[in-house]
Amino acid sequence: MAPPPPTSATVSQPVIDSASASATAASAQTQPIAVVSEHLPWRHTFISLKVHNFRIFAIGHFVAVVALWMQRIAQDWLVLELSGSVTAVGITVALQFMPSLLLGPWGGMMADRFAKRRILILCQSLAAVLAAALAVLALTGAIEVWHVYVIALLLGLVTVLDQPARQVFVNELVGPKYLRNAISVNSTTFQLGGLIGPALAGLLLTAVGAGWAFAANALACCSTVAMLLLLRKDQLFVSTPAPKKKGMLREGLQYALSKPTIYWPWLMAGFISVFAMSLPVLLAAFADHVFDVGAGGYGLLNALVALGALAGAVASTRRRQLRLRSVVFCAGMYGLMLCLAALAPSMLWFSVVMVLSGFWCLMFLTGSNQLVQISSNMGIRGRVMSLYIMVLIGGQAIGGPMLGWIAEHVDPHVALMVSGGVPALAAVTVAVVLARKGALALRVDLKDRRHPLRIVRRVAAA
Description:
The chain has a single domain, classed as Up-down Bundle (Growth Hormone, Chain: A), CATH 1.20.1250.20. Helices cover 74% and strands 2% of the residues. It contains 15 helices and two strands. It is globular. It starts with 20 loop residues before the first helix and ends in a 5-residue tail after the last strand. Residues 1-38 have low confidence and may be disordered. InterPro entries: MFS_dom, MFS_trans_sf, TM_effector.
């Protein structure tokens, strides 16, 4: 099933190869996307923000992300309070992400066929209605666990359409020139919101309850709709919608499997998603059962992860080269950090490792996202990104309940060790496979202070 990958060459001109003639036709709709590999000055760290449309989008996205994190934290803690079960929290995560696992490719096909801006306006309007319903139920005291389950499932259905369109829409905002930087800025915005949102959610949960966090998210979704309406349509890099035809989903899958710079990040994203992306479920178990720090401590732990992730997102904007091997390395480091967290002897050391975990998680996520987008052309990118999102988000539908059950019925430390150990082992395995296919070797030179470890090509024997 695995195609022969390129080794670790820097991605600068993605090769337009395909598994079929139809994929070739789709990939021929645009030219290869250039990647800026020179060292950018610090003043250009967020250079994509000089684009008017993207600047407006980033501001609205930041507000929405803060409110979304508030709702996520409040929702998980509310379910834990109502049910007293970490497994129930995992079920909530599963219901919210299961639609992406089952319907993700269909959402990508819709993103390729229809205007992305209109899809986002529709999705954010529906998300506002769902958040408002959750707020009313919580504020009136009528909320029950099954209410949260139903709304989480409906929100997951909205996400099926929203996420592929949102990923591809970034290119329509900035064009190919600033695409990599815009992806990193988006990640920075998401993690900055993830730093503020959990902290605000912790304050609201202890002060006035979960209902106001849901209300804030409803207002934020409305502000996102307003932001989308304010964009200058004449400055968008609008791509030609793909015509409807048979086999569109199969075409996207063949294209993804034919390109190693899509296939391997996709595979690693699967391991990270199933085992390591349901970290809030495990943090709820540690906050409640291990450290006994309550809702405020739960919000703090999530904020610490987001702090490290923010640093990782900023670091990703400074990344000069985008390599397949660096994506695999970051995934392995994230898994290793989770293993170390499982062994942490105190809340202090656990918190420190959570910051490092967030850093490596974001270095992996931004790197894999950039590599997949750069390696796919606009005519088929919606379907390619939907497959990536299906794995990244849908995998949490499996991992959430599984890790929640282990944390509740076995031990939270064991659950966290599994969460980090499996992705770390997968990263080592993939690294060995890539090294063997690319004839690479690790060279240790302690005399070279700048690069004591270096990956080099093995010279074949005469």
